Fold this sequence. Notes:
three-stranded antiparallel β-sheet, 2 domains, 10 strands, five-stranded mixed β-sheet, alpha/beta
Amino acid sequence: MSDAPTPVTDLFSNWNDQMVAAANMIGRSKNRRAIFECVYFDKRQIKTIREIMAKTNLSYAHVLKEGGKMVGFLLEKVPKGYKKRKDFAPRYQKIIALSQNKKKLKSTHTKISPHNNSDGLKVNFTLPSLAQKAKNITIDDIKSFSKVVKIKRSVDTSNFLEEKIKNGFKKIIRDKGSFKDWGGEKSDLYTTRIYLKNTRIATAIAFKGRGTGTKKKLEMSKMGKNGDQIERLFSEPAQLFLIVHNRQIASSIISHMKAFAVEKATNGKTVYYGVVDGDDLGRLVAAYPKYF
Length: 292
């Protein structure tokens, strides 16, 4: 049985229903409105992520995050971009107008929310979201590092070099492969020897250690020369993605990872992502001292 979302249009019986649902999905979000309008505004069926970025001035992560919320109903996901739904194309301007007019949206008659004299009638419904297949995990969730669960105190790893961290991970998971750093690499360690629960899972990891240029916190500006290291990481044929650093990791990095995980989840598989910051790395070292 396929776990692809059922087209929401099958759930509605007339255009008012569909347009109200579409307007509600866009809501008051300027970013979703901009992406939706960019995809639909001319006769071309497909817009690439890069084209949408140029037109809307949104970041790659924001296009993936907000566009992903509309996939399966307002948009179709295609390689490197989004495709318009032909049923909505002639009415996209009405949908945008409806999304921006709360009073008109509320007063629009639909079979799902008919307007009559009955007070208190309220129907709630939700639309499928790819975000449900993008799951944020911690090091405690990974079976290959199970000893860390019992460790409460963290040791200081602030002086650890990237190579030392990577070699420690390789020893724990018993991966004897050779992984040399170079400018165009997608990940620092790609392996199929990590167990998540009881199943081996293809994993791509980016390591950041001493010498990254961070004294307090790992920010997006340190994620590759062009700020595209997360994008390259998620281009690996993996299902689990990790960023490991020996200090604090900014929440913006986790947000970017989530956006790419949602985009990756369009293939129907669950995608796992997470970070291992200095505290968790210190717990890992305390749990497996002989490997570091």
